[in-house]
Design brief:
2 copies of one chain form a homodimer.
Chain A (H helix, E strand, L loop, with lengths): L2 H10 L2 E8 L2 E8 L2 H4 L5 E7 L3 H11 L3 E5 L3 E5 L4 E5 L7 E5 L9 E2 L5 E6 L5 E6 L2
Parallel strand pairs in A: 3-6, 7-10
Antiparallel strand pairs in A: 1-2, 3-7, 4-5, 5-6, 8-9, 9-10
């Protein structure tokens, strides 16, 4: 069975396949993650990416991909994709980060935002900002 | 009805709610995105975030959140969350990017990877790398 056929099979059955060649000999790393297991994992609510031009960037994504603007002003925008939201932020206004849905009270003193959501910002060991977010 | 109750209602019905206060008067921006509409949007397969220490970062996420390692070596790792995969990459080995599932042939000349996936890298107007990825 070819590497490609293996890859297709495992992907269709919900697996993660990392196949790569190391020199002449192919090296295989296969990690099965069942769909049922994935449901118990934490959900990433949104990813915030730094941009230099909010409007130009949003227009480019709308032109090139299938997604929808959920919010937009001059300092940031929020695009809705099938499985996640992507925020485009001017870094001086909002830090780049990604947000995980969990009880923020387990991680620190939550800040309650005006829309009723609550969150705590953490830094991972590489200095990336991680928002722990409760939507209600 | 309070802003918080509105927020809860809309989130439970699949809406995106952006509520914020501008000075003393609350200003409301509500964008409904039905779950059925979202299914037609493009899917973000993974997000790749820069790290300085792959192992230390992976260990921190495993300790603090519910997720699973799908792949790990010294230069990058792939964590599986409920709705998305997050890659932690040394920037000199792999560029930070996010990957959208689409036919890459519509965007350029795809490169076929060893696992049979095909992709094209684009740059958005802010210089972010966007991988257009076909898994098979």
């Amino acid at each position: 069975m070819s590497l490609r056929a293996w890859s297709k099979l495992f992907r269709e059955t919900g697996a993660i396949v990392c196949l790569y060649s190391n020199g002449l000999l192919p090296k295989c790393e296969v990690e099965m993650v069942a769909a049922e297991d994935r449901k118990s994992f934490d959900t990433v609510d949104h990813v915030a990416v730094s941009v230099t031009d909010v409007k130009g960037t949003v227009d480019w994504y709308l032109k090139n991909f299938s997604c929808k603007v959920a919010y937009q002003d001059e300092t940031w925008a929020l695009l809705e994709f099938a499985n996640i939201r992507v925020a485009f932020v001017l870094p001086q206004q909002h830090p780049p980060h990604f947000a995980l849905l969990r009880d923020p009270g387990l991680y620190g003193e939550p800040k309650t935002h005006r829309d009723g959501t609550r969150s705590v910002y953490l830094s991972d060991p590489s200095g990336n900002s991680v928002e722990v977010l409760a939507l209600k």
